[in-house]
Amino acid sequence: MKLRSPHAEIPRHKIRNGLIAVVVIALFAAGYAFPDAYNTVSDALDKRVGITLGHLSAPTFRLGLDLRGGAYLMYDVETRGVAESERASAVEGARDVIERRVNAFGVGEPLVQTTKVRDTWRVLVELPDVHDVAAAIEQIGATPILEFRDKSGDGAVTAEQQKQIAAANKKAKDEANAAAAVLKKGATFDELFKSTGTDLGFISKEQYGQLFAWGSRVQKGAISPAIDEADAVYIAQRGDDKKDPVIKARHILICWKDAQGCATSLSKAEAEQKIKDLMLNTSAQTFADLAKVHSVEPGAAQTGGDLGEIRKGDMVAPFEAALLAMKVGEIKGPVETQFGYHIIYKSEQRDEQLIAFRALAFDKQAVADFELAGGWKSTGLSGKQLERAAVEFDPNTGEPTVNVQFNSEGKELFAQITKRNLEQQVGIFLDGELISSPVVRQPITDGRAVISGGFTLQEAKKLAERLNAGALPLPVKLVSQQTVGATLGTKSLEDSATAGLIGFALVLLFLTAFYRLPGLLASAALVAYVVVVLAVFKFIPVTLTLAGIAGFILSMGMAVDANVLVFERTREELKTGKSPQAALEEAFPRAWNSIRDSNVSSLITCAILFWFGSSIVQGFALTLAIGILASLFTAITVTRLLLRFCAPYLKDKPALFVQSKK
Fold it and tell me: Per the UniProt entry, what are the Gene Ontology biological process annotations, in alphabetical order (predicted)?
């Protein structure tokens, strides 16, 4: 780091501008870290003097289980017998199973993650606000269940209907092949399109997997062979392509009595005030819970306002316009539509490739066309008979597929299932959740099956991991369990806050009493340090635990070290007869090497603790490292700016400055 020469004259306007920038940063950080305090002041000003500053909205601090209350479970995963190259994916598969079981238990904001300590793989589970820990442990430790089911019931298709389906689908394929032959003989696509054509518009991979895969490999204007999709056999002409955003979002809806589809007695003004009040307390972490309680959208109590994946044209124009203008992670509201007022939280956005097609469509039939009223039933085929699932690629389309292999018992069962379910779906369930439902095209007697569905490579890998986890779950052993009651967690938080405030006050008192005006200015810089660090904790966000708060409190003490080094160096310069201003300018660059070396060595220690330590130690290391980095800014930049600003006024008042020791 290159520092300005101590003898260079610093223009006063540069010092003033620097102080203004520091004040703005500190105020912004304080508002982000403590929005409730800002909102209280804003309301008081509005009430007493009529000054309206508006309200701030910011996420709450993320608290660990030792402060919030809940259960922490650590499982060792047995990976012996699994190839080294496959262990990571196998453990991820087990993690997915555990996460689904935790979600089924109804835990709010659970955290399930994997970690590796030397040669041991572990799954760490945090269950906030859980009271029945024994039940949670029992559910997590249960063996994952993989099942193959087919359709049955009073409304199941008859043998005659199955024949109709097979005949209709054969006719569609024959007609498509005949049309392809006509095209080969010289007929134009436009001629056939006039009679049997349909404009599919822009389609995605999820809508028409086979057609999209073909279109991805050819140029505009190309004519496809007959392509078999679920609803029809297509001969298509490729058109333009484009990318459209696919957005994941949640919303809270508050309607008024005249809004479309609304059943409430609220007036429009009352609904607007209610949505504004909700906006004040809304954050990314609390959004789903607030939606469950307050949103009037049907099903919001179960979904938390989740809208799933949203594409252009899915939502009404005002809602879509607001959503497209938002940044990921942003919360916006109120947004008015004909249905009421909305608060929108945009959680994700990705670009989706779309391709336009005109097609000759030859319609097929399916079981759904006969309004099947029955449900899924067990076939007796489960993960017990599954040997392995692996990702492979279709040799014709290059599309990722998932291939499964059964043992001898499963081979026989699967042959029976596929024979009786021709042109029907077979459901693949993991832990009672339907994860795939392929259509059986022909009997399968070799004990192998191919699951295709327009998967991306990532989706195919994840499905294979889930199938392997269900078929051959890795043994897990509970090795650590910690439970913190909500009352104890609250007390821990209060005690930690009290300790932090006492330590902070003592540091400020020491600085001011021992170093006088420079100590007072350093105390102001330390206040800026605290609000900046807390804002960073919210922004990342950092999960605050007792160990993490200890690291933060320790970093407050370390933040003073740089000031002490500078002030002691200033004392030495004052002994030589220099003025306070000259001593100050000489002290900062001379003290920098010691400040740099001490902080770098501390950061190295933090890196070692974070890399090799457990989650509790990692929290301590992270908060300490953030504090050290922030302290360099406040000690070197903020304190020096304040001292440079005040130094010219100290020429005739040496008693206010750091005096040399006698």
Answer: intracellular protein transmembrane transport; protein targeting; protein transport by the Sec complex
Q: Is the pLDDT of residue 345 over 90?
A: yes
pLDDT number for residue 251: 93
Strand order in the sheet with 146-151: 376-382, 146-151, 426-430, 433-436
What is the SS3 string spanning 176-202?
HHHHHHHHHCCCCHHHHHHHHEEEEEE
Closest CA to 5 of 654, 589, 632: 589
Give the DSSP letter of residue 59.
P
Token pair 């349909």: residue? 198
Q: How far apart are CA 302 and CA 592, in angstroms?
A: 57
Nearest to 189 by CA among 357, 355, 356, 354: 357
Q: Within 10 Å of residue 403's Cβ, how many Cβ atoms?
A: 16
What is the distance between the alpha carbons of residues 192 and 656, in angstroms, rounded to a whole number? 95
pLDDT in tens, 33-58: 888 888 888 888 878 887 777 778 77
Of 372-381, 401-410, 504-513, 546-555, the range with the lowest mean pLDDT is 372-381
Each as own residue / partner, the long-range contacts of residues 184-189 (CB below 8 Å, 24 or more positions apart, any chain) are: 189/223, 189/237, 189/358, 189/360
CB-neighbour burial class of residue 175 (10 A; exposed 0-12, middle 13-18, buried 19+)? middle
Alpha helices in 399-539 (DSSP H): 408-420, 457-471, 486-539
405 sits in which H/E element: strand 400-406
Tokens representing residue 253 in the block: 């809806």
Adjacent-strand bridge partners of 357: 201, 238
In which element (H, E) is residue 403 found? strand 400-406
CA distance 650 to 184: 96
What's the whole-model pTM score? 0.46
Contact 204, 350 (CB under 8 A): no
**H or E segment and range at residue 160:** helix 159-184
Residue 333 token pair:
């509201």
Angle at 570 between CA 566 and CA 575, to 5 degrees: 155
Q: Are 6 and 585 in contact (CB under 8 A)?
A: yes
Distance CA 484, CA 490 (A): 10
**First-residue to last-residue Cα distance in the chain:** 34
Backbone angles phi, psi at 192, to 5 degrees: -75, -30
HSE on the CB side for 374, CA within 13 Å? Answer: 16
Q: From CA 399, how far away is CA 453, in angstroms rounded?
A: 9
Handedness of CA 313, 316, 322, 328 (dihedral sign): negative
Give the pair of three-digit tokens for residue 341.
């007022």
Beta bridge partners of 396: none
List the structure tokens of 154.
Answer: 């009073």
- Tokens 């992670």, residue? 329
Helices 546-575 and 486-539 pack at an angle, to 10 degrees, of: 50
All domains of the chain in start order, with CATH: 63-143+475-484 (3.30.70.3400), 148-157+368-471 (3.30.1360.200), 158-367 (3.10.50.40), 485-656 (1.20.1640.10)
Helix axes 84-104, 457-471, angle to 10 degrees: 80
Q: At what angle do helices 486-539 and 615-633 cross, to 10 degrees?
A: 40
Residue with tokens 């062979």: 225
Model pLDDT, residue 155: 42
